[in-house]
Amino acid sequence: MPCIAHLDVDAFYASVEVGRRPELRGLPVIVSGSGPRAVVTTASYEARAFGVGSAMPTSRARRLCPQAVLVPPDFAAYRAASAQVMQLVRGQVDAVEVVGLDEAYLDLDGLVAPRAAMRRLVAQIHARTGLTASVGIGPNRLVAKIASDAEKPRGFVVLSREEACARFAAASPGLVPGVGPKTVARLAAMGIATLAALGDADEEVLCARFGANHGRDLRARGQLRGSATVSAVRIAVSESRERTFDVDVADGSEQEAILRRLAGELCERLARQQRRGRTVAIKVRLGDFTTVTRARTLPTATNEPRVVADVAAALLRAYAPARPVRLLGVRVAAFAGAADAAPAVDQLALPL
Ligand SMILES: [Mg+2]
Fold first, then answer.
1. Is the pTM higher than 0.85?
2. Which of 81, 162, 90 is nearest to 126 (CA)?
3. Which of these is catalytic: 23, 103, 203, 268?
4. pLDDT at 124 over 80
5. How far is the CA of 242 from the centre of ligand 1 (A)?
């Protein structure tokens, strides 16, 4: 029997913000852009208690919860946190399919004690990043996904397919991934308003209404039958070198010298692999753990130490760290050329 887990960080963006601004802990926090048409990206659970939810217009969220703290999104910080979480995930499980900054499917087949391994992983993520995550475990992706969502935050739900069908029998078919609002409305018009009703529906009737493939697929989803495949294709989309200092470095020219040295080491490795990248990025962590990344994309791919070092140094000078620095890093991404089958670079998965 396959064993799939779905791991999902709780209120991810809001939790990252609270993590680096402890004064926000316990407060309703809303991560949102600004402007009259802004929508809520993520709300902390404290804000959700007021009825605030993702994708809601921010103006409405403010009316529901006037005392909420509004924070603009900082995607560089979320990517950094995501990279840290996914690195921990990959430390425990070989087959990992990252499906978003804060979500992944894990193939637990072959683990001796999958539940214990997942408990350990969740504890480790919390200890290292301060983030909490919810986990669902089941025989396929649908059950795992629904299970991870069922008891958020800090959920840990293990269900067989039969148990999941029983538990969510009365839920809307829209609970199942892949059954969107339009389909839900069409099903409702046919008198099919629950997951149980969809699973029990006459396949011929569904096929007549939705077409043969979609109809059969819908009924299978209603019975929570789904894929148990985790595509763990791992493409190294970037290479990086970074260094944490025992004592924070305040001097700008010393920072630059370190960055140039890291760029040299990185390019040596790239040259050995015959890889060249178009994007050069730096990572700077200040003494107070503020972490920023700055990147520049070049017209042509390179692994020239001089070019990478110059770009990195220019990015550092432009950022001009306001405080002494505890970590510096250089990254090259967006590879091109013979050594790569030129996969589309998934920007979200870019671990920087
Ligand atoms: Mg999440």
1. no
2. 81
3. 103
4. yes
5. 28
163 in catalytic set: no
- Taking domain 4-12+76-161, whether its CATH number is 1.10.10.10 is answered by no
Contact of 21 with 29, CB cutoff 8 Å: no
List the chain domain ranges.
4-12+76-161, 15-74, 177-222, 238-349
What number is the average pLDDT over the span 228-251? 81
The structure tokens listed for 204 are 């011929």
How many angstroms does the Cα of residue 153 sit away from the middle of ligand 1? 9
Range 26-33 average pLDDT: 95
Q: Tell whether the torsion through CA atoms of 299, 301, 304 and 305 is positive or negative.
A: positive
Q: What SS3 state is found at 225?
A: coil
Query: Which of the listed CATH numbers 3.40.1440.10, 3.30.1490.100, 3.40.50.2000, 1.10.10.60 matches domain 238-349?
Result: 3.30.1490.100
Distance 259 CA to ligand 1 centre (A): 34
Single out the residue of 239, 234, 240 nearest to residue 94, CA to CA: 234
pLDDT at 184 over 80: yes
CATH architecture of 177-222: Orthogonal Bundle (1.10)
